User: What shape does this take?
Amino acid sequence: MLRILLADDHDGVRLAVKNILIDEFDDILIEECSDTQELISKGVAGEWDIIVSDLAMPGGGGFHALKVIKAAKPDIPFIIFSTYPPEQYAARVVQAGAVAFISKDAPVTGLISTVRGVIATRSNN
Assistant: This one.
């Protein structure tokens, strides 16, 4: 089973991303959270195959959560999914440990192919 932790402070975004992932992947469990502290708590406590998180959320944001979770669990693949400009943030989040920065303005296929790539990489390890 593919276990994904999905973090965004907008209910509609979480619902849309969740539905897209459920449509694309068989045998998937998606847990949701809407703020940074909940993301950190669930991210550290749970066993996740992938974390998908927005950058801008109440309580510190996805960048802070990325650093905290990666310090505790360095092997969890972390995808940042944000409206922030990739040219300003992509390199920073990847340097901090994210596997990818996906713009919410990009076609949804970018998120899907990134998740598939993470699954393939983890299957080969």
Observations:
- The first helix runs from residue 11 to 24.
- The mean pLDDT is 95.
- The first strand starts at residue 2 and ends at 7.
